[in-house]
Amino acid sequence: MQIEYDGTDYSGWQRQPGDVVTVQGEIERVLGRITQEPVSIDGAGRTDRGVHARGQVASFAVASEMPLGRMMHSANSLLPSTIRITSMRQVPESFHARFSATSREYRYVLLERPSAIDSRFAGCSHGKPDVVLMNRLAAMLVGTHDFAAFSKETPDQQGTLCTVTEARWYRSGRFHVFRIEANRFLRSMVRFLVAGMIEVGMGRLSEEEFSRMLVDGGRPASLVPADPAGLFLWKVRY
Amino acid sequence: MQIEYDGTDYSGWQRQPGDVVTVQGEIERVLGRITQEPVSIDGAGRTDRGVHARGQVASFAVASEMPLGRMMHSANSLLPSTIRITSMRQVPESFHARFSATSREYRYVLLERPSAIDSRFAGCSHGKPDVVLMNRLAAMLVGTHDFAAFSKETPDQQGTLCTVTEARWYRSGRFHVFRIEANRFLRSMVRFLVAGMIEVGMGRLSEEEFSRMLVDGGRPASLVPADPAGLFLWKVRY
C-alpha cells in the first residue's frame, strides 16, 4: 500500500511500545481491527518524529480475503484524517516494502521566514540563503559516499555508504525545495544534510568544512538536524 | 498591520466573550500585554471559524510610542505560531482597516480527494467536478448582484448587494483554486458560492437552479457552506 501522512503529531513511523502514537502503530491497529487478526506492516522508510510522507510504501501479509478496495476504504474511515492509504494492491509473497526498494526520494521544503500557514510543512532558514552555493554542495553529494557524519545512527552491518543519484535545490513558489534520491538513507541523514547546507548558505559554515564532513566523517558539534516539519518521504521506487 | 493565520484551531476572527479562542482575541491580548494598555483592533474581514488568512489587515490606536518594528517582533514572539503579523506601519488617524478597504480578495482551494497533508488547507469535492461549467457560473457572479441567497446574514443597513470584480477557477498543481474579488462580502458568502458551484460541477444541482438563486434570493435547503478549511482571506485593497 501507498500511504500519505502529516507527521506533525506522530512520534515517527516506527511502532513503539506503550501509548506512543506512531504512524505504523495506527495503521496496524486499524488493519488488525478490520481483518480481526494481528497485522504487522513493513514500511519502506522509517521516518523520524514529525517527518511527513507523500509516498510511503508498506507491505503486509494477512489471511483475510477481504477485497482490497473494501479494506482500503474501511481503513481510511477508521484512520485519523492525517493518515491516508492512497492505494493498495496485491504483490508476490517475495515483495518486501523495505528490502525490495531500489531507491527512495525525499524532499525538504524550506522557507526564508516563518509563516503561520506554511510552517507546518516547511523548515525555515530565517534569512535568504545562497542557493547557488547550496546547489554546489548538493552536487558533491551525488555518487557513493560515506555519510557517517550526517547521521546519528550507530552503523549496522550495512555500514554508512549510500549511493546518491540526484541531489539539487530548486525554487517552487515561496519555497526552496531540496530533492534527493538514493539507494538508502541513514537515520536523520536528509535533515543533517539540509542543516549543513543551510549553515553554509547562511555563511555560518564554510564550503570546506562541509566537504570535509563527507571525507573524514566528523561533524561540527553545533550541527543539529533541520526541522522535521520540512521533510517529506516523497517516493519509493522498486 | 498585515496578518497571516492558520484558522484551523480558532473560532473565527471576531473577539468573543469567555474562553472562546479567536484570532482577534489573541492579537488584542498580546498587544495589550506589550503596550500595557487595553487594545482593540478592527479587522478588514471577519472570517468564519476555521477560515485562514494570508493578508488580513487590522488597524488600532495606542498611546504607546514603542517603535513598530519592536512591537511587531514582540507580538510575534508571544503569539501562537499559527498567527503571524507580517508587517506593521503607521497610518493616518482616518484610516480604518474595514471601512477604508475598497476591495477584498478571497481564494478557495479545492481538492478532488481527501489528503492527509493538503486537507488542512483545502476543501474536497470527492470526485472530479466540471470546472468549465463552474467557470461559467463564476462568470455570472461578476457585476453587482443581490447575494442574499448566498449568506446566512440577516441583512444590515447596507443590504445584500455586492459588486464582484473578478471570479474564476484556475488550476494550481493538485488544486482547483477559486479567486473572487469584491467590494464587500456577506457572512459565509464565499463558502456558499463555492458549495453551489461544486454542486453544479458534480451534477447534483442544475446551472438554472444556481442562476435562479442570484435572481430570486432563495437557497435550496440542502446547500450548506463549503468546508472552511479551503478558504483564505487573501488580500485587502485600499
From TrEMBL, chains A, B:
Record function comment: Formation of pseudouridine at positions 38, 39 and 40 in the anticodon stem and loop of transfer RNAs.
Single GO biological process annotation from the record: tRNA pseudouridine synthesis
Pfam families: PseudoU_synth_1
Residues that hold substrate according to the record: 106
HAMAP family for the chain: TruA
CDD domains: PseudoU_synth_EcTruA (cd02570)
Subunit and partners: Homodimer.
Superkingdom, taxonomy of origin: Bacteria
Span of domain Pseudouridine synthase I TruA alpha/beta: 4-99, 138-238
Single GO MF annotation: RNA binding
Protein name: tRNA pseudouridine synthase A
Reaction(s) this enzyme catalyzes, per UniProt: uridine(38/39/40) in tRNA = pseudouridine(38/39/40) in tRNA
E.C. designation(s): 5.4.99.12
Enzyme class (EC, first level): isomerase
InterPro entries per the UniProt record, alphabetical: PsdUridine_synth_cat_dom_sf (IPR020103), PsdUridine_synth_TruA (IPR001406), PsdUridine_synth_TruA_a/b_dom (IPR020097), PsdUridine_synth_TruA_C (IPR020095), TruA/RsuA/RluB/E/F_N (IPR020094)
Similarity comment: family membership: Belongs to the tRNA pseudouridine synthase TruA family.
UniProt entry keywords in alphabetical sequence: Isomerase, tRNA processing
Entry annotation: catalytic residues: 48 (nucleophile)
